[in-house]
Amino acid sequence: MSGGRFRARDEGFSLTELMIVLGLMGVVLAAIYSASNAMIMAAQVSESQSIFARDSGEPMRLIIRQLMQAIQLENTTAQSVTFRTDRQMNGTGQRIIVDATSAGWIRYREWSINSAFVNTTVAPRVDFRYSDSCVNVSKGVSLFRYYRDDRTELTGAQIAEVAPSAARTIVMTLALRARGSDFETSQTVYLRNRATE
Predict the structure, then answer these.
(1) Residue extents of the structural domains in the chain
(2) 137 forms bridges with which residues in the sheet?
(3) Is residue 196's pLDDT more than 70?
């Protein structure tokens, strides 16, 4: 600066240069925002899957383990199964009912039974409710599907009428809602201890 006058070169950035820099900063900030948004969404999906794995794992393991030891299916529907088992193989067994409720629970009830297959108590010996986020009933997803030896599925009236004696395989599908997303997991159970009639 000389003599009180400004030279054009000493004035700083031109408006065009400033607009280019602001435009580049906008592009960089937009890329950072979209990347962080994608990471947040991925973390939310991962958390939902984690909740689903936690809520479905324990009931599936317990129910599958008991079904594998089933001696006799007594009552079968798409949303429930009643069966007998004798885990200690001492002639006094257990009657187990597993069902999906309209309230969103998977319910597991177990009674001790005597050798005449009569409950020894009025109230169940074990009464668990798993996962208040079950959507099997509300979404119309069968908790249990029953199959014959030849792998044909028993449907409709066959489930209640034929499945207790004819079913050799059960596919259990657990549908849960976690953080607004619905997840399903299925497992096949081969009824290896079934009594022949």
Answers:
(1) 40-190
(2) none
(3) no
